[in-house]
Amino acid sequence: MVQYARPTGDKADDGSWSTTDGGGTPTYYTAIDESSAGDGDYITGDGSSGSAVQIDFELTNGLSDPSATTGHKLIFRYNTDGGSSDATLTVRLMEGATVRMSDAVDVSGVTSFTTRTYAPTNMTGSIGSYDNMFLRIIFEDGDASDALYISQAYVEVPDASGGGGSSIAPI
Which of 19, 79, 90, 165 fits as disulfide partner to 138, beta carbons 3.0 to 4.6 Å? Predict the structure, then answer.
């Protein structure tokens, strides 16, 4: 059975993000943690500075190690204002300071929510501690004319080999 690492907390925010969740004190992770895509709540990255903006999320702990570098997937749902001709979204699975998976997508002109599944043939090395993983989202808009919207983001991890590992059910 597949395991899911969904956002469980806000880890770091560079101040260029907003959210539909949280009221006076923004709570970002609750806007993107759903198991079924829902575009009614989302986070927004402001690309008006022309510089990259970044936000990090803690992920589900307690996943069983599948002892494999294959079968892992990054899944995220995004949209933009659509005015930019030079906008890039990068989603990374991090283990501490090490990038384990990274997917960069040209999001220029995207005007409706789009789901992306990134399934590399092999990750960058083996994950030593699944409890040390986090999700990093980076948005860069070279002509500073767009905002990015993310409504869902998570990591899919294969079950532990031998089938005896526990799995974390979708939220």
Answer: 90
Reported as a single tens digit per residue, the pLDDT across 72-117 is 999 999 999 988 899 999 999 999 999 999 999 999 999 999 999 9
Closest CA to 145 of 81, 65, 74: 81
Residues 165, 156, 57, 170, CA torsion sign: negative
As a dihedral over the C-alpha atoms of residue 45, residue 28, residue 9, residue 89, rounded to 10 degrees, the angle is -20
CB 142 within 8 A of CB 50: yes
- 33 in Cβ contact with 75 (< 8 Å): no
* 1-27 b/e (C-beta count within 10 Å ≥ 16 → b): eebbbbbbebbebeebbebeeeeeebe
Is residue 162's pLDDT more than 90?
no
Q: Tell me the two tokens of residue 78.
A: 């995004």
Task: Give per-residue pLDDT as tens, 16-58.
Answer: 999 998 777 789 999 999 999 999 999 999 988 889 999 999 9
Q: What residue type is 133 in one-letter code? A: M
Which token pair is 62? 């307690």
Cα–Cα distance for residue pair 167/171, rounded to 1 Å: 12
Distances (CA, A) of 123 to 51, 63, 91, 99, 116: 28, 17, 14, 9, 17
